[in-house]
Each structure stands twice: as structure tokens, then as C-alpha cells.
């Protein structure tokens, strides 16, 4: 068993992934199935969307949409 938070780090070494969130099982799947299911989008909820927008732009973020981000 290996613990990690980056799929790119886990993919070369893991056959099966168990994903947890807030102490609950989110997924028990293979790396490929997770990639197909989740794609490349990430949902982020924050109190200060302006701060998130600034941080993402500084890191080269693209495709930002949603309240306060896509405007």
C-alpha cells in the first residue's frame, strides 16, 4: 500500500487506486478507469474566488470557469 495525492506519481506503481475524501471512500478503481471517469477537470469550491483566480493565473491556469473565475 502506498499513499499519495498526485495521480501522476501513483500511475507508474499502482494497479488499483482507493480514493478517499473526508474519511469516506470516493472510488475503488484502476488508474485508467479513474482517468476516463474524471477526465481533466477539477471542481474547486472556495470562499474567495478572486484569490483562487489570482493564484491559478500565476501558475498558468487555463479553462477557468464558474462564479468569479470565467468572467
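-> sequence recovered:
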Amino acid at each position: 500500500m502506498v499513499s499519495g495525492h498526485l495521480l501522476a506519481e501513483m500511475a507508474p506503481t499502482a494497479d488499483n487506486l482507493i480514493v478517499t475524501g473526508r474519511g469516506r471512500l470516493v472510488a475503488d478503481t484502476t488508474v485508467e478507469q479513474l482517468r476516463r471517469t474524471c477526465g481533466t477537470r477539477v471542481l474547486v469550491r472556495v470562499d474567495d474566488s478572486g484569490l483562487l483566480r489570482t493564484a491559478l493565473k500565476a501558475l498558468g491556469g487555463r479553462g477557468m470557469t464558474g462564479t468569479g473565475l470565467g468572467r
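The longest helix spans residues 49-58.
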